[in-house]
Amino acid sequence: MENMHELFNLSDRVALVTGGASGLGKYYAQGLLNAGANVFVVSRSEKGWDELSQFAKGCHRTVKFLSIDITEKNAAKKIITACIDAFERLDILVNNAGIQIRNNILDYRDEDWRKVIDLNLNALYFLSHEAAKVMTEQRSGKIINIGSMQSFRAGKFIFPYAASKHAVVGLTKAYADALAPYNIQVNALAPGYIDTEMTKALQNDSVRNTEILNHIPAGHWAKPSELIGTIIYLASDASNYVTGATIPVDGGYLLR
Ligand code: NDP
Question: Which pLDDT tens digit goes with each residue over 103-133?
Fold first, then answer.
């Protein structure tokens, strides 16, 4: 029987989180630090860097930051090189940064389609590709892609987002299959309705809020902290025989 503490322990592991200093990514970075990992965070602005540095100190762990737009040409190579320079290895990649742009299908602008696909799909692919080079050398690694309920739904006002998140599920499977012989597991997490600043307006719209709550078997919006357990599970040895899966963390939303 394995020691349960050891199974989930991330001490000496290095995790890279895109968009890890704010939004949901901040919770993932904090969870990984708390579980013992050192963390490399990538974002364009320095928003949240101080707060996360303080948090890391409290965990006796190190967090390092790189300010870069991950959709830039060659960003992936620069990011992985900077992470290896800082920590000499890369064990866990969390592809979290993502955007959503809403519009009617006939009014949708070409540049908005490109923006969404560039960040949610292309940047995720290029970073996974560079990370895989390091992880195959190491003969170990975990790649965690952030999907969405829109990985499984039509999303008619946010169809590029839905298309990119569907593609994340497909890419997760292809990478999982190709990298399994190298002891690298590739999985995705599909968050449901999360109580964040971004969704406050929706929560304050009582008609929409009631519709949403009626659709969630668990009967409530998730707190961001309710996603962390799945991230730690997918980052740890506890999930070593799980690969190619997309795990909904949605209070059962997709069941209805
Ligand atoms: P936020 O917009 O709150 O955070 C996005 C993060 O990514 C920020 O830290 C941002 O930092 C960073 N980022 C954005 N664009 C870039 C870029 N081009 N280069 C580098 N960093 C970038 O998003 P959420 O936390 O809400 O969402 C995170 C992920 O979770 C996304 O993939 C989203 O699709 C998914 N998701 C979210 C849900 C929700 O309810 N919030 C539900 C389901 C899925 P900066 O601006 O400084 O670059």
Answer: 999 999 999 999 999 999 999 999 999 999 9
Number of compact structural domains in the chain: 1
In the 3-class helix/strand/coil scheme, how is 32-70 assigned residue by residue? Answer: HHHCCCEEEEEECCCCCHHHHHHHHHHCCCCEEEEECCC
- 203 domain-assigned: no
Q: In terms of residue numbers, what domain contains 127?
A: 4-197+224-248
As a whole number of angstroms, the distance between CA 117 and CA 20 comes to: 20
Strand order through the sheet with 246-249? 63-67, 38-43, 14-18, 92-95, 141-146, 184-191, 246-249
Average pLDDT, the chain: 97
Ligand 1 binding pocket includes 122 (Cβ within 6 Å):
no
Ligand 1 atom at minimal distance to the Cα of residue 22: 9
Answer yes or no: is pLDDT of 1 > 80. no
| Ligand 1 contact, 71 CB (< 6 A) | yes
Q: Please report, for the domain that includes residue 90, its CATH number.
A: 3.40.50.720
Residue 39 counted as domain residue: yes
Q: Does residue 134 form part of some domain?
A: yes
Give tens-digit pLDDT for 214-246: 999 999 999 999 999 999 999 999 999 999 999
Choose one of 26, 28, 43, 125 to mutate for the ligand 1 pocket test, by most ligand atoms within 8 angstroms of C-beta: 43
pLDDT band at 140 (very low <50, low <70, confident <90, very high): very high
- Residue 217 in any domain: the answer is no
69 Cβ closer than 6 Å to some ligand 1 atom: yes
ipTM of the shown complex? 0.99
